[in-house]
Amino acid sequence: MRLILTLVTVLIFFAANSVLARAGLVGGGISPAAFTAIRLVSGAVMLAIIVSFQGYRPWAAGSVEGGVTLFVYAAAFSFSYVAIPTGLGALILFGAVQITMFAGAVLKGQRPGPRRWIGSLFGLLGLAVLGAPGAESPPLWAAMAMAISGIAWGLYSLIGAKGGDPTRATAGNFLYAAPLALLAWLLLPGEAPEINGVVLALMSGAITSGLGYILWYGILPRLEASTAALAQLSVPIIALTGGMIFLAEAPDLRFAISALLILGGIAFGLMPRKKLP
């Protein structure tokens, strides 16, 4: 039960990142490069404080590949959300995550059972309903950027599944990623960010990213890659709901059908198999 509650909390945090980014980049007066830098630096500071109080050096864990994939995910995520609505962005993001993590699971020798495959197919069908003709189509460059973000997040998650202390690993990854984000901001400065955008970036970095990723790295070793990928298919639905509540993005029949397919697929895929007597 604790694992399930932690997973639900993590998924809500992931969806909150989409809402915070979209709110900051569209109405918060902050550039994508600034949002990314403030998000990753604030997350690094929060995690460094936590790890230091535990008696460890914040930079001792983590990995270069973890830091690079985290930066690529966060940067592409921010730039794409300039032109993509909250729910549709999460749809593209976690569709790419789903493909990446399932491919990683198969390459690592895992063999997802029939329920996982069927559940994933239903989930992807639900995502296809959201992105079918008639939906608001984002610019191709923005959709491609979000897909790259999803691939990077999938790789970051596969790296985290190797185990190790989740707090120290996450802190180390943020410390590797933060200088890259500051360099990107230096090269693409844009206009000075407004206070609202800075606050939203700080919330995304210190809370829903920094603390959320500790929880995510903590449960990943206890989840198969296919299970983690399947569970993340719920994030677009949560993000869409957040967009409706906080950003006035109206729901429609497409949303209801997609939610039924995605959540039904997750429930079916994660349902325990009956043991033979």
Automatic annotation (TrEMBL):
Keyword Acetylation: no
Signal peptide: none
Residue ranges annotated for the EamA domain, each copy included: 141-268
Principal location: membrane
This protein's UniProt keywords: Cell membrane, Membrane, Transmembrane, Transmembrane helix
Compartmental location: Cell membrane
Cellular component GO terms, alphabetical: plasma membrane
Superkingdom assignment: Bacteria
Keyword Transmembrane helix carried by entry: yes
Membrane topology: Multi-pass membrane protein
Pfam families: EamA
Transmembrane segments: 33-53, 118-135, 141-159, 171-189, 195-216, 228-247, 253-271
Protein name: DMT family transporter
Lineage of the species this protein comes from: Bacteria, Pseudomonadati, Pseudomonadota, Alphaproteobacteria, Rhodobacterales
